[in-house]
Structure formats: C-alpha cells, structure tokens
UniProtKB/TrEMBL annotation:
It is found in: Cell membrane. InterPro entries: BP-dependent_transpt_permease, MetI-like, MetI-like_sf, OppC_N. Keywords: Cell membrane, Membrane, Transmembrane, Transmembrane helix, Transport. GO terms for biological process: transmembrane transport. This is ABC transporter permease. It is a multi-pass membrane protein. Pfam families: BPD_transp_1 (PF00528), OppC_N (PF12911). It comes from Streptantibioticus silvisoli. Residues 1-43 are annotated as: Disordered. Residues 1-18 have a biased composition (Polar residues). Residues 131-334 form the ABC transmembrane type-1 domain. Belongs to the binding-protein-dependent transport system permease family. One of its GO terms (cellular component) is plasma membrane. The chain crosses the membrane at residues 57-77, 135-161, 173-194, 206-227, 258-278, 314-334.
Amino acid sequence: MTMQPQPTGTAGETSLSTDPAAETSPGTPSPGGAPTITGRSPGRAAWDRIKRDRVSMAALVISVLFILVAIFASFIAKLGGWGPITTDGKAINPDTGNYPYGTLGGISAHHLLGVEPGTGYDLFARIVYGLRTSLLVGFASAVLSIVVGVIVGLAAGYFGGWIDSLLSRIMDLMLAFPQLLFIIALTPVLQNSLQTNIHGGTNENLRLLILVLCISAFAWAYTARIVRGQALSLREREFVDAARIMGAGWTHILFKQLLPNLWAPILISFALAVPQNITTEAALSYLGVGVVPPNPDWGALLTDASQYALQDPAYLFIPGILLLVLVLSLNLLGDGVRDALDPRANRS
C-alpha cells in the first residue's frame, strides 16, 4: 500500500494546539454516562474564541455593517433622495458664501448628515459612495499584496540558498522605502503617463487601479517576511520529506503541502493589512494624489472639510469620526483574529 504524505494542522484535522478548548469539546453522553469528546478543526476553535471575545464580536458587527453599506451604496443613497454629485441649491445660502442653512451643516429631514458648503452636495450620499471607494481600494490592495507576499515568501523559505538570499534582500529593500512618500511621488507620474479621458484627466477607474498597484507594491514584503519564516520551519517537517521521497514536484509541495499549513498567518496579515491600506488611501486622497473631486472619497472629503473647519465643523467631524470608527473596528477585528488563531496567546 502506498502511503500518502499528510500535512499537519490543516483545516480538516483536529487541532494540535496546546489549548484544550481548541482541541476537544463535550459531545453526546455515551451509554455508560461519560460524555464523548468531539474534535474541532482549528478554524472552528478560532471562531469559538472570537465569539467569546465581546470586543472582537462588536468589531465584526461594525465591520460587516460598513461593508454592507458599501455594497448597497446605490440603494442606500436613494433613500436620502440625493446622488453623490447632485447639488441642492436651496440648502446653501449664497449671501453667506454658500454655507448651509441651519445648524450642524444643514442637517435636516432632507439631508440626514447635512450638505457640503459651496457645492450643496448631500453629505450622506457622498459618505456612502466614498465608503465604497475606500473599502474597494483597501481590500483589493490587501488581496494583491497578500498573493504576491505568499508566493515570494514560500519560494524564499522552501528553496533557500541563493534564491532565499536574493528574495530576502529585495524584501529588505522594499521595507526600507518610506512607503507613503514614494507612493505620493509615483502615483501622479503613472496617472499622467497613462491613458487619459476625453476631458484631459485620468479615468477614475484607472486612478483606482494605480492606487491599488502602488499600495500593493510596497505592502507585500511584510507578508513575505512572515511566510518565509514559517516556510523555513515547515520544509523540515516529516510530511514534506515524505512528499519529496514520493517524487512530488516543488509546485505540489509549495501549494499542496506548505500553503495549507500557513492559512493562519496569512489570514492575520490580511486582516491587519485592510485597515492600514484604507488609511493609506485616505491619506493619498487627502494629499491630492488619490481620488479627485467631485468623485466621492473620504480622504477627499476631509481635504475639502479642512477649509471650513471653523465655519462648519460638522462637515469635518462626521466623515472624520466615521473613518476613525471604520479603521478602529477593522484593527480590533484583526487583533481578535490574531489572538484566536494563536493557541499560545494569553486569554482570560
């Protein structure tokens, strides 16, 4: 009979962690009266830990709520009756420099979060559509950077030798770059050198693509460094040796043997990369090299709002607080996922 190499710690096996709660759970009592012990997969054990953590569950609920709002942005904006670039001339006072009528930036039954000074755009619609932009860039750049980082990290950790030395030096070089400064310098150059639309400006979808590529280009090295360290340890395990003896190729070992055992650090890296990328995108738009008005984006909203901070503070605080809540909830969720997937974490 031919023996098949079996990776350890995959999602389909019983957890081998030192945390008893991650390994077993009481089942149906046996005929003798003693309860049977049912094994749980690492994924199920991690989910049980997250459910017991109130902070992580609250962060998960808030994050899912933001994601649902972004997905159904078109429908939700219609509830307010205004589009993201629809001007309401009756909501701003031309005698005061087009500031909103009323208090708190013109909040009323017609404009749930008020209107923008000068333009008369509905702030609720702008925020809802801007959330879609921020989450799209954040998740897309996180996925791309994770994919590149996993491939590079696996190759460096498994092959070793000159391949590991070369890839490690590239990682060190990318980590040494001041990320935000280089993205600020690089993004306008790429936008101006690529195809422009009929109005002479860069197509908005192309601008978003460039943002995703630039953020990912400087973010993959963090994941690659983590995956490389894990792969260096796993390549000496018995199931990898068994795969080599049976004649398995390097692609099979990398993606069928090593990769399934790395899902925990990969998931943690992704969960922590999303809020960081959202913050980077907002900063780039705030500095004028990201999404360009009148296209809605939270960073661009904060840029415009900074001009009216004294006259209309609600215009600054509303998108600013929402951005804080979004990034904070995603960060807390990432911390919760990291703690849930680490069986050696100190939990009360």
